[in-house]
Amino acid sequence: HCTKQLISNNLDAASRHYQSAMLLASPGVSLVKLWASAFGGEIKSISAKYSGSQLLQKKYKEFEQAVRVQEIDGLRLVKKLAENMEEMFHKKSEAMKVSQTKLLYEYFNAVLINEIDEEGNSVELGGDFLLQPNDHFNNLSVNLSLSVVQVPTNMYNKDSAIVNGVYWSEALNKVFVDNFERDPSLIWQYFGSAKGFFRQYPGIKWRPDEHGVIAFDCRNRKWYIQAATSPKDVVILVDVSGSMKGLRLTIARQTVSSILDTLGDDDFFNVIAYNEELHYVEPCLNGTLVQADVTNKNHFRMNLDKLFAKGIGMLDVGLTEAFEVLYDFNQTGRGSACSQAIMLVTDGAVDTYDAVFAKYNWPDRKVRIFPYLIGRESAFADNLKWMACANKGYFTQISTLADVQENVMEYLHVLSRPKVIDQEHDTVWTEAYVDSTLEDGQGPILMTTVAMPVFSTKNETRNRGILLGVVGTDVPVSELLKTIPKYKLGIHGYAFAITNNGYILTHPDLRPLYEENKKRRKPNYSSVDLSEVEWEDKDDILRNAMVNRKTGTFSMEVKKTVDKGKRVLVLHNDYYYTDIKGTPFSLGVALSRGHGKYFFRGNVTVEEGKQISLILPPSIPSFSLSFFPFLSTYCNTDEHPEHRYLSQIDAIKLYLSGREPHLKCDKELIQEVLFDAVVTAPLEAYWTNLVLNKSENSDKGVEIAYLGTRTGLSRINLFVVPDQLTNQDFLTAEDKEGVFNADHFPLWYKRAAEQVPGTFVYSLPFNTGNDNKSVVLASTAIQLLDERESPIAAAVGIQMKLEFFQRKFWTASRQCAALDGKCSISCDDENINCYLIDNNGFILVAEDYSLTGMFFGEAEGAVMNKLLLMGSFKRVTLYDYQAICRIFSESSDSARTLLDFNLYSWWYSDLTAKAQRGGRTMLVPCDTEYPAFISERTIKETTGNIDCEGCIKSFVIQQIPSSNLFMVVVDNKCDCSAAGPITMEPIEIMYILFTESLKCERLKFQKDRRRPDSCHPFHPEENSMECGGALGLYPSLTTTLLCLMLALFPR
């Protein structure tokens, strides 16, 4: 009896497993197909009806004969854009040249203005200083008539050198004001003095930090250093003999760190410590130099803590090594190939080591020597002074930590002498950086600075090469984008620019800020290499060609992420590139193949244009021109003050009226936007009729209809009152990806363009908060022609309530073709799970509402894995080389929480260890790999069975017609949870360097770069006796020195 019962139980279990596997067999598959067809038909009908897509397609067809389709000539386009940028850059640099021609005395200290003392009187150097908010400067309170002067906290405001400099630079006020009137797009203009003060226009009040300190020193900024000096190769020698213990070693470390601050991306360096032996601060870099980028400098700074003082200082050994390293590295052709210097940080020298200099540096003296005497004692000062004077350098003594920065700066003015004597006003441009004082509605904006040196032109002091300072102005990177006609680049096309070092100046994928409010700058954000965003170019073909200022083309398949990195578009891009003359920058344009390589011109008569201009907003409230908030896409309203407060629509009206000849507008773009306005005008009446027909949309499931065209024209119609909108942010400035932007089309427009013509793409917005998941967007593209490579003329769509959308789905899934009305399966069955997912695998409808918006692989890992194996979906591996990782002190290096995707430098493991030792949380750059998923378009219907340890899980996936959606019906009786979920979480790429040699190779690796064109290493007329107090030598030593000079260094 027991045996029979056991057999019976086993048969029952087997029967249940079989029934489960057969649950979704042929009859079930047909039923799922019926549901999909019913839902697809109804939802497309709703989407087409309320969007007006068929009407709009018909209207563009009616104008087919009035348009001219053109293939974009990428090379011609990029050359034209480069010329436009060259003209813009030239205009900015000309303002700097004017600033130097007219070098009244008021001293408004930036910190003390509008400050009063205890008696109610203005403090000295302060005074009443009118400040008014100005929208051009982010509503900061500024004075457009006067500049202010900032002096670092560690300097005396009334030092005679500063007061004198403030006096003669006062004439710059008028120059700054005139520049701003000529070019109202200018932002900050300034003069950085060699004495340390900083004159800034417009005037603005500076506020110290919580400690009452303003540490800003203009001479330490990249724009100042680049303009003042030529590129340089530097070896820093640090004395670590026993006499350097204690405070002296601390001061020495700070001195080295300050020297590193003065080096930029065009410079190369190494740090060598010496006692009786040589100790490379980074042993991997024995005998070579590395580029002075931020990452390398930070790495060396951390290694300075490993220096300890002991033994005897053998300076001759250190000097010999430094000379040989400079010579050998120069022979490789990889360095700056310009100025060379040895920085000697020591507490004394027992000899002058003239034998070493005679062997390696005399008579040409191509390597300058800059000794820094550490400590108050000066017993060996004369020897160090002699070295500086005999080798065209400069001697300084550093007694305290407070002395470090001011004394380190002295060498810059020595290196600037040849440029000053040559009277070369070399214009320099910096890489992109963030100006946190100005914002554009999306956070702090990116800037580049144009700067050039200012020097004394007196003949009697010419051989002294006196640098007065550096004059500069900031240029928002957005100014570059104004020269780019986005409508000519296609939906996925974009322009980008890089520096001579391969760093990005502008690129739509550059992400310099992080965290929710996007206020914090990423480390090294200004040195993101092109290869880190165009990472599919594994061999750096595109990057290296642009770095070397070539003109040409390049093609490759790319994987572009959209929708906050959750979706991917696989495109084939053609790249066109050339250099921007007069700058260190190169420009590139990317055009996607297919519709992205074509644009069309529509003809509108002048009368038609004027008629359209008469009905521009506010006459029709549902019509708007969308554009980046401060970007003058259609008309340049910045050039003349009287146009500055015109909206783009008002500017177009004024332009079409012909009453304002000084208003500059893009004639071609305006003609095209008016053509789009003529073609799309009937949609207004169509939507209005739908609104007036009360029987339509009675449950108010459809809330918004919207239209966007290739020219940025947008029409929006509300089917409900604004307060009843489920998603209030859609198509507003808050919806960054949903509106036309300076460098991208809206997300719904991009996705619709890649959908099969005549079909709709449906999606949930991935905004923060669950409230925004309560709507569904449906969009479709309007093609101009029937051909496959037809340009996209426009896109239309609707926003509907998620609840309304889901109700349509569940209604369709309850249909049944059986005569008795009893279906073999139903979504209401407890043994069945029904899902609606999109082409990227995200759930739009599920019985468990909490799964809405989730990736399908997290809910049904085993099924998603089977779909990948069957080819219904494919995994696309993506990389992020700008990510930020959070490191927890209690975790190992590998246990990181990722905040934002992207990769970086392996040596940040040093930061990791430091953070852990300190017992704190830290954010560091990292590199990540993460997946995205995309459906295979040819798969219409698939069934599958999954063996899950004793049971079979079956499923059906059926494409929803005319959409990007799939219905997935899964048998849930078989538990496959052991398979685990498939997630989209990024994984940090851990660089495991098994050997020291691999670590060293990584450190030494340098990508291609191009040297700056200008180089001024030395000048035969230079007065090298200006060497830091050398003229105060004892008479006997002075005589010896002069004789030696006459013998060895004839002029």
TrEMBL record:
Keyword Thylakoid listed? The answer is no
Q: Does the keyword Zinc apply?
A: no
Which keywords accompany this UniProt record?
Calcium, Calcium channel, Calcium transport, Disulfide bond, Glycoprotein, Ion channel, Ion transport, Membrane, Metal-binding, Signal, Transmembrane, Transmembrane helix, Transport, Voltage-gated channel
Q: Which CDD domains match?
A: PDC2_MCP_like (cd12912), vWA_VGCC_like (cd01463)
Topology of this chain in the membrane: Single-pass type I membrane protein
Q: Which domain of life is it from?
A: Eukaryota
Looking at the UniProt record for this protein, which Gene Ontology cellular component terms does it annotate, in alphabetical order? Answer: voltage-gated calcium channel complex
Any GO MF annotation of the entry: metal ion binding
Q: Where would you find this protein in the cell?
A: Membrane
Q: What Pfam family does this protein match (any one)?
A: VGCC_alpha2
Domain VWFA span(s) in chain numbering: 233-415
Q: Which family does it belong to?
A: Belongs to the calcium channel subunit alpha-2/delta family.
PANTHER family from the entry? VOLTAGE-DEPENDENT CALCIUM CHANNEL SUBUNIT ALPHA-2/DELTA-RELATED, VOLTAGE-DEPENDENT CALCIUM CHANNEL SUBUNIT ALPHA-2_DELTA-3
What is the official name of this protein in its record?
Answer: VWFA domain-containing protein
- Gene source species: Esox lucius (Northern pike)
Taxonomic lineage of the native organism: Eukaryota, Metazoa, Chordata, Craniata, Vertebrata
Which gene is annotated as encoding this protein in its UniProt record? Answer: CACNA2D3
